[in-house]
Amino acid sequence: MMNRGPGAGRPPARGFGGGPGGIGGMLPPQKTKNVRRTVGLLLARLRPERGWITISAVLAVGSVAFTVIGPKIVGNATNVIFDGIIGKLLPAGVTKAQAVAGLRARGQNQIADLVSGSNVLPGHGIDFTKLGDILALAALVYVLSALLGWMLAYIMAGVAQRTVFRMRRDVDAKLARLPLKYFDSHPHGDLLSRVTNDIDNITTTLQQSMSQILTSVLTIIGVLGIMLWISWLLALVALVTVPLSIVVTLLVARQSQKQFAAQWARTGDLNGHVEQMHTGHALVQVFGRRQQAIDEFGRQNQSLYEASFRAQFLSGIIQPAMMFLGNLNYVVIAAVGGYRVVTGAMTLGDVQAFIQYSRQFTMPIMQLAGQLNLLQSGLASAERVFEFLAADEEAPDRAATSVQPKDGSVTLEHVFFQYEPEKPLITDFDLEVKPGQMIAIVGPTGAGKTTIVNLLMRFYEIDAGRLCLDEICDAKTCAMSSGWSCRTRGSSPAPSGITSPMARRAPAMPRSSKRHRRPMSTSSCARCPMDTRRC
Amino acid sequence: MRGLFRLLPTFLSPYQPQVLLVVTLLLIQSIANLYLPNLNADIINNGVVKGDIGYIWRIGGLMLALAAGVVVLAVVAVYFASRTSMSFGRDVRGAVFARVQQFSAQEMNRFGTASLITRNTNDVQQVQMFLQTALTMLVTAPIMGVGGVILAVQEDATLSWILVVIVPLVAAVIGTLMFFAVPLFQVMQVKIDKINQVLREQITGVRVIRAFNRTPDERERFEVANLDLTTTGLRVNRIFAAGLPVLLLIMNLSSVAIVWFGGHLIGSGSMPVGNLFAFLSYIMQIFWAMMLAVMMVIFVPRAAASASRLEQVLATQPSIGDPAEPIEPITTSGTIDFQAVSFGYPGGEKPVLCDLSFDVRPGLTTAIIGGTGSGKTTLLNLIPRFFDATHGAVLLNGVDVRRQRLETVWASIGLVPQQAYLFRGTIADNLRFGSAEASEADLWHALDIAQARDFVAALPEQLNAPVDQGGTNFSGGQKQRLAIARALVKRPAIYLFDDCFSALDAGTDARLRAALKREATGATMVIVAQRVSTILHADRIIVLDEGRVVGMGTHDQLLKSSDAYREIVLSQLGEEAAA
Predict the structure, then answer these.
(1) By the 8 A CB rule, do A242 and A365 touch?
(2) Is the minimum CB–CB distance between B76 and chain A shorter than 8 Å?
(3) Which of A142, A296, A366, B135 keeps 20 to 30 A from B415, CA to CA?
């Protein structure tokens, strides 16, 4: 796992949120192992915000409701105009029924149908007062919708930010409570990724996906409802495109997934090469391998180019395909709607509203696909963070006695310790150090020298025996306050001048088989200058 | 933002025809999409109003054909957009990599290896993806806007004034949004980096933090950063919260306005009723395109930041390069001369090396010893020109290293650095690093001398045993021996051993040096060490203290003449050895 290093394989940008279709594949596919549990935990984290979330839900319903009514009202306004035009063409003084009859008598059946379907007042032109009233209502509805939409986004921003704030704080608190064993046995890169990248991802999900998925779903339901109410026939036409778009998206997605997998694999390879050539820069130069490095890079770069081009192209096709289906929708509605107006089955305003609705219908569907992708990725990240938060913690200190360090005597009695089961390291170890003594611990590699220090610092807990500092056994405060010198080469006492405490990042762990050693952060090993232990 | 504006044109210039093609296709596509409402207007004006059903179906068919044509155009546009942006990414990656290969140690130190890796991988990816979306989406928005206005004016000049007013208004709103939001996003990125840094330090430095009881301080530090980030995040997202509703409102109110004014025009007979529908459709299409563009705007700051980081690398000239007229040295026997060499890091307070003068001859082992910080590794680094001396000259084979081609200098040198680094592959690959034509017998021979034959032979695949990146699947001592073997395979005239025997225990160390001496009789060996036992028998020992030569001679000579040396021997080997 650590072969790839920090730069490789880890996608940089967090999802191109909300954009229709084809920018998929920015993230490598992330699957959640236990969706229900993760969702449950996430919802639990949102509980403190449930008041705001309820308000948001209400606002969302309100905003969507207003957005959905709007086109119908404008459609009614359009009808007023159309009625006015038809009215002008008809003789004044007759009722609509009489006008229709008159038209039929003259053999103009088509126009007769048209007139009978409308709300015309023969002889009258456009009723501008009525038009004004309707349009004023429409304007009001739209303003309310925008207001509610803004309030919704405003509140959700607060909800998301506060939730993530608390999550980050919990993560940091957790870091302070985890035993050293956790840090040593988990690759630092992975750990860092969980507390940074994954939390960033969750932020994006909470920020965007939640409210947008809600509004998208509500919009789809609302628009569908009103479409069915206006004309179930045209609504069915609009609906036909939904399964079509799903089928198209799935087909394309399957093809492009393969290409994206290839892209990620080659990205990993290339990044590995870059990492090596940059880290071993001096070696590459002195051993005269610059040109080979560049050539090898060129080969891998080219192959990455080919894979990523195919992936981008395939996933990029989704958007034009969606656009085509949207246009198809438009064409059919325009034609069929026009036909039904002519036959008097629908008003023109309703057709116009329908056109707008079909566009209002397809947009959220396209967005939903992208949002669901983001949501999936966000859930996967949430799962990783929750896994981290559920890790076993250090045993709490029994007695919180804060003791001042006295003279500094150290005693170990019958101490037993091992890092891994079946691999005993320290067995029945006794040591008594009087105050003021300087003790040297020497031994071959893997004897357990640094382990003794780890035990004294309580970075690891002894498995059996007694460990006493200043006559106080297992007193945590004392153990934490002892200074701590880095060991020098060959485990001999340091030449004068070298007694600076340094971060020993690689623990002294017994070497298991080469293949199954515990993974460790490559960078931390490379940086520790005095570590003679195998990294 | 400047980075983007420099990077994009430079690397896009070979692809100008493709970019032009994409823009043209998108233009045609947008106009075609905008023409559909025209045809719809036609249906209404001439089909519905006149009751001509046949006309409705005919024009409907025309619309269908147009939609099909649009999709073909769109797919072709996506093809070329993908080609262009991926080619761009490939070219930038290659350019950055090649540039880094030219870097000297100074530039590597300035940027840091980790940063260079990120720039070469993640940053390129960011800009590449941005270009891809720009070519497919960002470009469409202004085209739709302009195209919409043109078609509207053509349809009906009187009503089109609404569009002429609305479109620039929307552009202004978007512009204002960007003006406020984009810098805030940049600030947010900085705060995210800050928090990530705090967390990284808490993870990698956990031992130090706990050992020195600094956990509460670290928690405090994090709390401050967390609060900071959240406050900024709230502000940014609340500004953006206003954006979308405002744009939607403008779109909807324009529809209302169009119906109102259009109604009057229709009533007075100056406009056929179908055109009203066309206008409403224009509005919708234009706004949806602009909405998409707004959503993509969020990614501009990240891409801009990445682009400027890439620009930094590409604009950096390596400080050490081949001279204009290189001189080839006459002999390659491996002589090194330091002539009054001084060296200080740029911006450093005092020089690291001061007035060093000595020579190193082939066939002899020269050791350099001194305490930490005395300048030993720096001295060594001057020989392969990882750094250039600030005063004086370093001569290799009688010629100043600055007057030779770098490749010539390096050809004479076999370097074993302090930290052994192996490359992913097989042991054989690593050993052949400096000499691709070495035979297996050569490799085994080198392993023999490096005291590594035993453990390599014990591996199931032996020479073909896999090596992980960095050599992490081997112990420190094993890595070191493989690194030594790698230098041996190259058979250079000069060996530079930078304190690399310390990973070995005393026995292996002694055996290795003895084998080395036997093997590389004619070669020059420079050993930097901290352990006196390693260099006891060197032909000449140079003692460094704070960058100055304080003693030169054999072990016995120095015991008598140099206090500093005697002190070192005393502290390491005890009274008897110093006597």
Answers:
(1) yes
(2) no
(3) A296
Name every residue whose Cβ is closer than 8 Å to that of residue A278 and which is 6 or more positions away in sequence: B100, B108, B113, B116, B117, B120
* Residue in B130, B113, B146 with CA at minimum distance from that of residue B27: B146
Q: Give the closest of B48, B101, B475 to A348, CB-based.
A: B48
How many Å apart are CA B375 and CA B351, to the nearest integer? 10
Distance CA B347, CA B344 (A): 8
**How far is Cα B96 from Cα B314, in angstroms, rounded to an integer?**
6
Q: Do A128 and B264 touch (CB under 8 A)?
A: yes
CA A159 to chain CA centroid, nearest Å:
16
DSSP 8-state assignment for residue B387 = S
> Position B139: which residue type?
V
Measured in whole angstroms, how far is the alpha carbon of residue A229 from the centre of its chain?
Answer: 38
Question: Which residues does residue B110 pair with via DSSP β-bridges, in sequence order?
Answer: none
Residue of A nearest to B271 (CA): A85
Nearest CA in chain A to B133: A23
Weakest-pLDDT range from A132-141, A291-300, A437-446: A437-446
CA distance B375 to B348: 14
Q: Over 70: is that where the pLDDT of A400 sits?
A: no
Query: A-chain residues within 8 Å CB-CB of B47?
Result: 338, 342
Q: Touching check for B502 and chain A: CB below 8 Å?
A: yes
Interface of B with A in 321-350 (CB under 8 A): none
Minimal C-alpha gap between A334 and chain B (Å): 6
Q: Is residue A261 within 8 angstroms of chain B, CB to CB?
A: no
How many angstroms separate the CA atoms of B185 and B233, rounded? Answer: 8
Inform me whether the C-beta atom of residue B371 falls under 8 Å from chain A C-beta atoms.
yes
Residues 6+ apart with CB under 8 A from A398: A474
Residue A22 clears pLDDT 60, i.e. is over it: no
Q: Provide the 3-class DSSP secondary structure of residue A208.
A: helix
Q: Which residues pair with B425 in a beta bridge?
A: B467
Closest CA to A72 of A453, A267, A355: A355
Let me know: does A30 contact A381? Beta carbons within 8 Å.
Answer: yes
Q: Which pLDDT belongs to residue B465?
A: 92
User: Which of 139-168 (B) contact A at CB < 8 A?
Assistant: none
CA distances from A323 to A246, B68, B405, B411, B440 (A): 13, 10, 59, 61, 62
Q: What does pLDDT average to in each consecutive run of 10 residues of chain B (579 residues)? A: 78 91 90 87 83 86 92 93 94 94 89 84 87 83 82 78 83 82 80 86 88 91 94 88 85 90 85 84 82 75 85 91 89 90 84 90 90 86 92 93 92 91 93 90 93 91 89 86 94 92 82 87 89 86 89 90 87 73
User: Is the separation of the CB atoms in B527 and B370 below 8 Å?
Assistant: no
Is the CB of residue B439 less than 8 Å away from at least one CB of chain A?
Answer: no
Q: How far is CA B72 from the centre of its chain?
A: 38
End-to-end Cα spacing for chain B: 69
Q: Inspect the interface and report whether the beta carbons of A444 and B470 lie closer than 8 Å.
A: no
* Tokens 């100056």 sit on residue: B270
> Would you say the C-alpha torsion A39, A44, A45, A47 has a positive or negative sign?
positive
Test A77 with B57 for CB contact under 8 angstroms: no
The predicted-structure confidence for A40-75, as pLDDT tens digits, reads as follows 999 999 999 999 999 999 999 999 999 999 989 998
Please state, in angstroms and rounded to a whole number, the distance separating the CA atoms of residues A447 and A467: 19
Distance CA B541, CA B561 (A): 12
Instruction: Check CB contact of B506 with chain A, cutoff 8 Å.
Output: yes
Which pLDDT belongs to residue B579? 60
Q: Which long-range contacts (CB under 8 A, 24 or more apart) does A37-45 make?
A: A37/A383, A37/A386, A38/A379, A38/A382, A38/A383, A38/A386, A39/A379, A41/A382, A41/A386, A42/A379, A42/A382, A45/A163, A45/A166, A45/A167
Residue B160 identity: S
To probe the interface with A, which of B25, B38, B39, B49 has the most A CB atoms within 10 Å?
Answer: B49
